[in-house]
Amino acid sequence: MSTIPRFDAAWKTWLDENILRGCTHQSLIDAMVAAAFHPNTARLILARHLAGEAFDLPDSAAPHDDSGYLYGTPMLPPERVLTASDCEAPKLFSAGQPVVALFADVLTHDECDRLIEIGRARVQRSSVVDPDSGNEITIDARKSEGAFVDASTDALVSTIDRRLAELFRQPVENGEDLHILRYDVGGEYRPHFDYFPEEQAGGRHHMQRGGQRVATVILYLNEVARGGDTTFPAVGLAIHPRRGCALYFEYVNALGQSDPKTLHAGTPVEQGEKWIATKWIRRGRFRAEN
Length: 290
Fold this sequence. Notes:
Pfam family, one: 2OG-FeII_Oxy_3
CATH superfamily of the largest domain: q2cbj1_9rhob like domain
Structural class: alpha+beta
Number of strands: 18
Keywords: Dioxygenase, Iron, Metal-binding, Oxidoreductase, Vitamin C
InterPro entries: Oxoglu/Fe-dep_dioxygenase_dom (IPR005123), P4HA-like (IPR045054), Pro_4_hyd_alph (IPR006620), Pro_4_hyd_alph_FE2OG_OXY (IPR044862)
Strand content: 25-35%
GO molecular function, one term: iron ion binding
CATH topology of the largest domain: Jelly Rolls
Helix content: 10-25%
Mean pLDDT: 88
Strand order of the largest sheet: 1-2-3-15-11-18-9-8-4
CATH class of the largest domain: Mainly Beta
Order of helices and strands: HHHEEEHEEEEEHEEHEEEEEEEE
CATH architecture of the largest domain: Sandwich
Protein name: Fe2OG dioxygenase domain-containing protein
Number of domains: 2
Largest sheet: 9 strands, antiparallel
Radius of gyration: 20 Å
């Protein structure tokens, strides 16, 4: 017997009654997720229902099928060359589903070397967010060393924060602190998502400040002798680290859905070491304005 929920007349009535009662949209989504709807599907249903659109949930939007994600207008600026007050970054490639792009000349070689120098003095074993508690924990799937840095660490960090905000047209205060990461031989980060699962208590805990993560910028600080690629397994994409380049990808749409095609990984470093700096961008303000 199938346990896949169907969005039928009973569910429509339930939505109407609870919207009339004044229930929050997130509480309705949480209840549907608890009933085995996929979070993306629950958000899609609610958005269409609030818009007054009559529709039937297709079989392709089953609880564990992520195909319900809707691509709209990307946040990524469409120009072939992005500009900041101190930088011009030509686009090397881009894709639309998922929204991924690689840009050259975002950092100078001297800036890359300085960030590595800053990181080498500070990095410690990397952690991840525990899905239940929201606490930081270490796991075998992530083998790297990292350190968060800000303007108080070095003036260069403030320069990079402003530059990225100008290039990608996002408020500087919506960015998390820059995260410098080092991967030694064997270092990797197995396939994962950067957004926080809203159906998990740990994810909701981290969204209390700044809301959901919506985009990531990975700055490549050195050339890796062998290995250390950034891969997107769902679409067969691999990016080789190239010093001074920035990889951008976004994963949350206007409905609040999260894009499952942005599953990504850092493959094991086979020779040498790999240095990157990551900037995660939130939906709202994460940091106080300077």
